[in-house]
Amino acid sequence: MSDPVTLRREGAIAVITVDNPPVNALKHAVRAGLQKLFKEADADASVQAIVLACAGRTFIAGADITEFGKPPMAPSLIEAITDIDNVSKPTVAAIHGTALGGGLEVALGCNYRVASKDAKLGLPEIKLGLIPGAGGTQRLPRLIGIDKALPIILSGNPISASQALQDGLVDEIIEGDLTAGAIAFAKRLASEQLSLKRASRMEDKLTEFRKNPEKFNEVAAKAVGRNKGLKAPMAAVEAVKMTLSVPFEEAIKRERNMFIELLVTDESKSQRHAFFAEREATKVLDMPADTKSREVKQAAVIGGGTMGGGIAMCFANAGIPVTLIETTDEFLKNGLAKIRTNYENTAKRGGMSEADVEKRMSLIKGAVGLEGTKDADMVIEAVFEEMGLKKEIFGKLDKITKKGAILATNTSTLDVNEIANSTSRPQDVIGMHFFSPANIMKLLEIVRGEKSAFDAIQTAITVGRKIAKVPVVVGVCYGFVGNRMLHRRGVQADRLVLEGALPQEVDAATLEFGFPMGPFAMGDLAGIDVGWRIRRARGERNEVADTLAEAGRFGQKTGKGYYIYEKGSRTPIPDPEVEKIILDASAKKGIKRRPISKQEIIERTVYPMINEGARILEEGIASRPGDIDVIWLYGYGWPVWRGGPMHYADTVGLKHVRDRLAHHAKELGDKSLEPAKLLDRLANEGKTFASLASEMKKAS
Ligand code: 3H9
């Protein structure tokens, strides 16, 4: 294998290049190569300055995450960066793509940083449940100040090159050839013989905070935000705080130890699992490796309601022209107006410029009637959930649309195969299930019909990524993966309320678990009337929900539901009237109410989802446990530090989950809680969903 780090000369400038595809991660050979070649260039009297550049699509994107948890191999990243920092000649990092984590830490070990216009720089370790472990928490605050560094470290979000220039993280933006620009920059440095700028030795940006430590606490509390209590954010604050009182060398050692301690936490393991699961989810196990996407230059969305409008926005946001189709001029006008209002609201909040609003609106055309789909390479239908209507639309699309166009349905419940069979080209039909609000929610369930062609699936994945979604391929079943599992939680939440809990208790336990919202607050947000109407049509009844709906308590939209909402507020306030409705419902059903613990609430709401996830795997609806996790992380607010339901099940132990489900099933006489066959088998064999994933991968 060729060396991933090489050195070449451009006159008196040594150019060290990292070439370790795909993202130039700092595997052992890269660390060793960097250390060796920086030392070599430093020792060479004919070298006046050193440029560090990267080949391929990006600057170094961080430590090699796949090496975490394996025995450490010298040099550590800290050792390599310390040696770079100690070089006696000017050093310049030339940044393109993304300088992330350990990559930015390497760049911070250099004296100067130049970047291409579209580069991004960040310390995303927090998103992996970690802190920067190679000097980032010490060098960044010294270079740009604590008030600017803390939000970067605590959010994990990268900043743009222009922001970095403004903050002093980058010294120059290079237009055109980056390496040539960096070499020119280095030559200037060498000729001016300025003293070396070492972030590790800078103290002036710390003075203000040293004088006023209270200010540090204020800035830190703001940067931590909702993540208070999680291990990595707390450690990050502690690490940055060291800049105020602990000498640099000592602080670096302590930072490293904190990093190592975080590596073994469940939180970090869960977040790292999520990182790889997200990337794995786009790989379809049986798809031939050479499958190519079809080209999508023009899209059409049928239905100008909230969902259709949101989907059209996703395309416009990604720069793909899209036609919004409605049945009448009036509906179309309303749909387009709603989209414009959405964009304008974002602009008012400072999220985009007025010019951006116009640019995006110019990409969205309107048309009345399905003829408007004739030029589209991808059509997404987002009309009512009515099989007859969908089949009629797909039958017409079959005649109108171009050969090879992807015909997608956004159905959340209906049989994609039946829809596909209403056309003469079921191979082009697929489900693309967006989550509301579609322009915000990241998850995209791609529903693969039994006849969907591989290149149609691949196109949906590629387009999904292009429009900034996290695509996961699933099979056809009622509710697909996410909603099918959610249903299990809903059933138990309703039962818990009848047995003795109150909505606010169930919601509080769910929030404490880490979800942003509990099932009842979510019911109020979605609208209680939706389920009520469906149940009425089916002749079914949910005693509590339907009594609320009959009293006109539809949720947030009517100011009352499971909770009361003050005018203009979304904060749920428990309501004694609801408590009475619940007590009456229990009495009517002859249920003797009992106190219900938080533990039982979690076991009864979360474990049945895991159980359903196991059934979904058994049936092959999801191809990997990690796919289910990704769906829950991006579609339903599952806390990332718990890794997703299937990963979480592994952390509590499958035997425990199985036994508790069996216990509740027996105690309550509730067959729906009986452990799934797969869960039972894995528990008996002492296995995990992760081990099942490895078995599945080997078998494919
Ligand atoms: C760190 O640096 C700790 C230090 O402070 C201290 C250490 C002591 N390692 O995302 P993509 C793989 S923590 C190993 O699809 P994109 C990825 O799995 C690290 N592998 O591409 C995928 O593999 P595959 C801090 C990595 O263009 C392939 O590369 N850094 C790593 O959409 C392509 O990835 C981060 O957290 C890695 N670090 O996005 C950055 N990164 O093809 C994490 C990627 O087999 N990375 N892979 O599925 C990213 O955010 C994105 O990958 C990036 C590119 C934006 C760079």
Protein described:
The chain is an alpha/beta fold and 700 residues long. Helix content is 50%, strand content 12%. The chain has an 8-stranded mixed β-sheet with strand order 12-11-10-13-14-15-16-17, sandwiched between helices. A hairpin with an 8-residue loop joins β18 and β19 (573-574). α5 (146-155) runs antiparallel to α10 (231-245) and α26 packs across α29 (654-668). The longest helix is centred in the middle third of the chain and has 20 residues, at 329-348. The protein starts with a strand and ends with a helix. The mean pLDDT is 96. It binds (S)-3-Hydroxyhexanoyl-CoA. (S)-3-Hydroxyhexanoyl-CoA (3H9) binds at residues 22-23, 25, 58, 61-66, 77, 98, 100-102, 105, 124-125, 128, 132-134, 136, 259, 276, 279. (S)-3-Hydroxyhexanoyl-CoA binds at residues 22-23, 25, 58, 61-66, 77, 98, 100-102, 105, 124-125, 128, 132-134, 136, 259, 276, 279.
